[in-house]
Design a protein that fits this description.
Length: 32
C-alpha cells in the first residue's frame, strides 16, 4: 500500500497509525 504524497495519502497514512493504536512519528516531511 502506497502511503506517500504521490498516492494522495500523505495524511491518511497518519490516520492509520492512530487507528492501529500506535502513535508513530510522521514518515513524511512536514510542510510548515
Amino acid at each position: 500500500m502506497n502511503t506517500n504524497e504521490a498516492a494522495g495519502q500523505s495524511v491518511f497514512h497518519i490516520h492509520l497509525h492512530f487507528l492501529g493504536g500506535h502513535i508513530l512519528p510522521p514518515m513524511i516531511p512536514r510542510k510548515d
